[in-house]
Amino acid sequence: MSAEIEARIEQLGITLPVAAAPAANYVPFVISGQHLYISGQLPMENGKVAVLGLVGADVDVTGAQRAAELCAINVLAQAKAALDGDLGRIRRIVKLNGFIASAPGFTDQHLVMNGASNLIVTILGEAGVHARAAVGMAGLPFNAAVEIDAVIEIA
Asked: Stretch 56-82: mean pLDDT, rounded?
């Protein structure tokens, strides 16, 4: 299964980055029983936050969906680090929580989160189908447009 997942990632032209180190006093992931909890991931690309500002003012929905995709890629990078490189141990993405830095009046957070949801399902298939939340926020760390955390069932 791991080779299948890696092949899908490669077919999409995605290279999973090295999992980012925490920016404060927390760990990037915790395994408890059969669950892997991934701390919030920002839209990091090439070592920096790639999408900045408030969605609906500084960033349009398409740009924010790209930010959500980058967050999802970073969630998978953390999962790969936590699972000793074996993404095949993912049984199911249980839940994604999306935090979208939103301008006053912006109400399409759910559309932004589709960027992450669609990518996860494309990569993991049925194991990627998940529950989720999409919440508007006044601001996020480092002025990121989106932050996503995850709960994953593992083998």
From this structure: 98
